[in-house]
Write a structure and sequence with these properties.
Elements: H1 20-26, H2 28-31, E1 34-36, E2 42-44, H3 49-64, H4 79-92, E3 101-105, H5 112-121, E4 124-129, H6 132-144, E5 151-155, H7 163-166, E6 174-179, H8 187-190, H9 211-214, H10 219-234, E7 238-245, H11 251-260, E8 265-273, E9 276-284, H12 299-302, E10 308-312, H13 314-324, H14 334-349, E11 352-355, E12 362-369, H15 377-390, H16 397-418, H17 436-456, E13 465-467, E14 473-475, H18 478-488, E15 501-510, E16 513-523, H19 526-546
Parallel strand pairs: 3-4, 3-6, 4-5, 6-7
Antiparallel strand pairs: 1-2, 7-9, 8-9, 10-16, 11-12, 12-15, 13-14, 15-16
Length: 547
């Protein structure tokens, strides 16, 4: 999934990706790395180092007027991602275009941060480098772009960060430092062994960095901790210290380290480009700095989240509307009928629900699931039948008349659940077709017995027998059972403290069909909402099949 829409708002590539076809027509050195895919779109193979280098050099030339050279054996930066970092530094230092002084720790062969900062904002840079090849290329790139007055590239000893680089400049106060630290601790991590989630796809681009650019003892975590250690000694020599991170898991321990050291100001952000995510951390010892707010935790929630949904075709709506009339549904609109049927199913499942005001031509329910009652429903019904069979038969003829037909009805219901498209016929109840009077009696007795079963069902779905004073054992009084259940269940979904999940169920009209959507609100497990959605869909479809 592309994350370009989450780029920094001022990033020029946020809403307008580079036009490879146009760039290829303008720059012959880039054209040889552009191919046309089956859909006719111009594409670049990001696993080819030459192609990545050609793209970076072309974008810097086209969009920033910068001409650079990069060896293939050294890190080739991507322009949109580096531009995100530059814009965030602008936010850290109030975004003013007046001359500012910054330090780029490990500038690399491209010297891209100083070149962008100097050419865009007129910033002065001290760019440090430990690698001989990177130092030579960085120096040459600064000179050929005529930025030597703004960018000073210095060669520093191995493992030098800030202390040694600033020991000769005791009076200069810098506004910020930037750093793209080595991400990996060893070769195995650099190759993705034991450092990458097995479920993630392999990287979409090639890694061309040299040893000093991609690896350091302890990886990025220890590298940044060394910068934090230097900052504790330098303190107000820099207004802002910052680093970019390649692993999100590094962010929390580094923030904890800053808190432990008593650093008063800190913030962080995310850098997004294509399928690549990076994180950045900044801290300051100044009290008067403006601290940019970190990314909101709601950012991911703000992304368009598709609800769970299913569609009922218009041919099924009339059948469902007729089905709902038996449930005292007075509404003439099909959406009202569907909502009524789902309310019945939710009541049977003991899923708390209430209607929510909404616009016309729409129905809306707020659902609160307290327990998972929609899984293994057939098993639970069979267990109820088994327990019912084991109950001693009451001597009263009404109890006998109520019990026997119920078994036939429940057997019929199980047969229906075994195959959704199997029609229930008279043969599924007995070998001989019953008379009309017996069928009516069976139906009435079955409904009465089913009502009793529902009323005496406990929280775990078991039947609760109760013995009378006369010594006969019968079913518990339905009135007392109903009052007990009502006392245990909250009157409103909003009054529940412990629940599995909450969701909003919408019933919408869509070109004659009905669309049912379930929007996640909060809870423990989204898979449970998916299961309930499937259950409701099957319930409605079975209701159509039985009509």
């Amino acid at each position: 999934m592309s994350l370009n829409k989450s780029m920094h708002p001022r990033n020029r590539y946020k809403d307008k990706a580079p036009d490879f076809a146009y760039l290829a027509s303008k720059y012959p050195e880039f054209q040889e790395h552009v191919h046309t895919n089956l859909s006719g779109r111009a594409v670049v193979n990001f696993k080819e180092p030459e192609a990545v280098r050609a793209l970076t050099c072309t974008l810097l030339k086209e969009d920033f007027g910068l001409s650079i050279e990069i060896p293939l054996e050294r890190l080739i930066p991507t322009v949109p991602l580096r531009l995100n970092y530059i814009h965030w530094v602008e936010d850290l230092i109030d975004g003013q275009k007046q001359p500012r002084r910054g330090i780029d720790i490990g500038t690399g062969a491209s010297c891209i941060y100083p070149l962008l900062g100097a050419s865009m904002n007129g910033w002065y840079f001290l760019a440090t480098e430990v690698d001989d090849i990177c130092f030579d290329y960085a120096t040459r790139n600064v000179e050929q772009n005529h930025l030597s007055d703004l960018v000073k590239v210095v060669k520093v000893p191995q493992k030098t960060l800030l202390m040694d680089a600033l020991k000769e400049e005791t009076e200069i106060v810098y506004d910020f430092c930037m750093c793209n630290p080595p991400f990996f601790a060893n070769q195995l991590e650099a190759k993705g062994v034991n450092s990458r989630n097995a479920r993630r796809p392999p990287p979409s681009s090639v890694n061309t960095g040299g040893v000093t650019e991609i690896m350091a003892e302890g990886g990025e975590l220890e590298f940044v901790k060394r910068i934090i250690h230097d900052s504790l000694q330098l303190k107000k020599r820099l207004r802002w210290y910052s680093c970019m991170l390649g692993k999100k898991c590094s962010l929390a321990p580094l923030k904890e380290e800053l808190r432990k050291q008593g650093v008063p100001k800190m913030t962080h952000t995310e850098f997004c480009q294509g399928r690549t995510m990076r994180w950045a951390l900044a801290w300051s010892f100044y009290d008067d700095v403006l601290v940019p707010s970190p990314p909101s935790k709601k950012r991911k929630l703000d992304r368009v989240r598709k609800p769970l949904s299913f569609t009922l075709p218009h041919v099924a709506l009339r059948e469902l509307q007729m089905k709902s009339r038996g449930l005292d549904c007075t509404g003439r609109h099909p959406l009202e009928a569907i909502t009524t049927l789902m309310e019945k199913a939710l009541t049977e499942l003991r899923v708390l629900h209430k209607r929510v005001p909404c616009r016309e031509q729409e129905q809306r329910l707020l659902l609160t699931a307290v327990e998972n009652t929609w899984i293994h429903g057939r098993q639970k019904r069979r267990e109820q039948m088994r327990q019912l069979r084991e109950l001693p038969r009451a001597h009263h003829s009404t109890a006998a008349a109520a019990t026997t037909p119920s078994l036939a009805q429940n057997s019929q219901e199980d047969a229906t659940h075994e195959s959704a498209d199997q029609q229930v016929t008279a043969e599924s109840i007995g070998n001989s077709a019953p008379s009309v009077e017996s069928m009516k009696a069976t139906k009435a007795a079955g409904e009465m017995n089913q009502e009793l079963l529902e009323k005496v069902a406990g929280e775990d779905g078991e039947i609760m027998p109760e013995c009378s004073s006369a010594g006969t054992c019968g079913l518990k009084d339905a009135t007392s059972a109903t009052s007990e259940m009502s006392s245990k269940q909250p009157a409103s979904p909003g009054s529940v403290e412990h629940f599995l999940f909450k969701c909003m169920l919408n019933v919408l009209q869509e070109e004659g069909d009905a669309m049912i959507e379930m929007h996640w609100v909060e809870g423990q497990n989204k898979d449970l909402m998916n299961q309930l959605c499937t259950y409701l869909r099957n319930t409605l479809l079975k209701a159509v099949a039985k009509s």
